[in-house]
Write a structure and sequence with these properties.
Helix content: over 70%
Order of helices and strands: HHHHHH
Number of strands: 0
Distance between the termini: 39 Å
Radius of gyration: 19 Å
Length: 229
């Protein structure tokens, strides 16, 4: 019985890792869509997010079956419960990527993009790394990776503030670029939220190992996923 349950937990972990890989791909793909001729990349990103929706349903069903059939306790219960929380954050990362893709499609055929995209590209790269490390922390019970993800969030926040300042200046200096500058501010905010969801995942990974919820005193509450949507 224990061997069967361990195998089921491994399958659940593998599916979560695969969904996180899709999230990472979606972040990279949607970032490419912000460049010239990015309509194809935007559509690819949206397709990835649709596959993530399917993964979310499958993972949730697996979790509920394990809870009902195996009635896990202690660490096993923490593992399944945390998985239910993490899959919600991954799905919302997909939502943020889909939102960015929709904005990117509005720029289809436009040769130039308003503002300096360097901070946004940097935010995207760090957010993708955070998603990958947070799930690695869960799958491998790696507390160091989890805490590194939480630390990286400060860097993403700093990049967001830099990007917003530069784009606000653009709004003032070049009124004709206002619409796209506003879109870029929104995109930067979506990327900041993706990083926040990765932090949530890292905190649930810590919970799996320690049984303790890392809360507001460490920079946020892992229970608070609704406010990040």
């Amino acid at each position: 019985m224990r061997k069967t349950f361990d195998a089921q937990l491994k399958e659940l972990s593998d599916e979560l890792v695969n969904m996180a890989a899709s999230a990472e791909d979606a972040i990279d793909t949607v970032t490419r869509s912000l460049g010239h001729g990015g309509a194809a990349s935007a559509r690819d990103a949206m397709e990835l997010t649709r596959s993530m929706d399917e993964s979310e349903r499958e993972i949730e069903n697996r979790c509920f079956r394990l809870l009902l059939q195996q009635q896990p306790v202690a660490r096993d219960l923490r593992t399944v419960s945390a998985c239910l929380k993490m899959v919600t954050d991954l799905q919302r990362i997909g939502d943020q990527c889909a939102n960015i893709a929709e904005l990117s499609l509005l720029w289809s055929g436009v040769r130039s993009v308003a503002g300096d995209l360097a901070p946004i590209y940097a935010m995207s790269q760090k957010a993708a790394i955070m998603v990958k490390r947070s799930i690695h922390a869960y799958a491998n019970r790696d507390l160091r990776d989890a805490w590194e993800v939480i630390a990286l969030d400060d860097e993403v926040d700093e990049l967001f503030q830099r990007s917003r300042r530069e784009l606000v200046e653009l709004l003032v200096d070049k009124r004709e670029e206002a619409d796209r500058a506003i879109d870029l501010i929104i995109i930067a905010k979506y990327l900041e939220r993706i990083a926040d969801h990765a932090v949530n995942i890292a905190r649930w990974a810590i919970y799996c190992v320690t049984g303790e919820l890392v809360g507001d005193e460490e920079g946020g509450n892992p229970e608070d996923t609704t406010s990040q949507r």
